[in-house]
Amino acid sequence: DIQMTQSPSSLSASVGDRITITCRASQSITTYLNWYQQKPGKAPNLLISAASSLQDGVPSRFSGSGSGTDFTLTISSLQPEDFATYYCHQTYNPPQTFGQGTKVEIK
Amino acid sequence: QVQLVESGGGVVQPGRSLRLSCAASGFIFKNYGMHWVRQAPGKGLVWVATIWFDGSDKYYGDSVKGRFTISRDNSKNTLYLQMSNLRAEDTAVYYCARENGFYDRSGSQRNALDIWGQGTMVTVSS
Questions:
Q1: How much of chain A is in helix, strand and coil states, percent to nearest 5?
Q2: What is the rounded distance in angstroms from the CA atom of residue B59 to the CA atom of residue B69?
Q3: How many CB pairs under 8 A join A and B?
């Protein structure tokens, strides 16, 4: 199975900060990588597909990059509604796997 | 609107069975692969199972293989998860999700889970 490792597991940041979350795959997954945002008590919401394709309606402050084994999710200017947990997700091979999540908290 | 609604969760004793349902609306259900993903309390997301758009192929996570069965009825726009021999570690919120195709910068098609239900809680406890 392909292991997905996110870092950091959590981070504290302030409104307006630029933050980056990384996701590393245990083998190459080319661009079969997605990012989701999840708020407490809610279902995950797809932010970015295919490593860098922003979903309709997702603010442009979110961006994704990478291919192969190393990927990043960047929020250019953190907003109050962005405090949540973020997950990467690979669909290269079954079983599909998620990273362990990165919780973004208010400093 | 495009929507997935799970049902069938509840409290069940270890070793017993439970069937979850996911009703789809607002899109052509038979055209999409579907997934179940679960989340134990306070933990991360874990992929459980997937079924092809026509039901012709299915895959399972190692932790549920041989105990859970994914199926669908395209005439009823409904996805199912039959869970047997339940264990305490199966306690989680279970989400159904739609798989859709998207393109990377080179134009290659990839896939992601773009529509999720609200989840249904399954508690396995004596």
A1: 5, 50, 50
A2: 9
A3: 81
Q: What is the pLDDT of residue A106?
A: 87
Identify the pLDDT of residue A107.
87
Interface subset of B 40-69, CB within 8 angstroms of A? 44-47, 50, 59-62
Of the candidates B30, B29, B47, B31, which has an alpha carbon nearest to the alpha carbon of residue B95? B47
Nearest residue, CB atoms, A101 vs list B44, B59, B95: B44
Q: Do A91 and B44 lie within an 8 Å CB cutoff?
A: no
Q: What digits encode the pLDDT tens for the residues A7-38? A: 999 999 999 999 999 999 999 999 999 999 99
pLDDT tens-digit readout, A51-63: 999 999 999 999 9
CA A41 to chain centroid:
18
Whether the Cβ atoms of residue B4 and residue B24 lie closer than 8 Å to each other: yes
Query: Which pairing describes strands B120-124 and B92-103: parallel, antiparallel, or unpaired?
Result: antiparallel
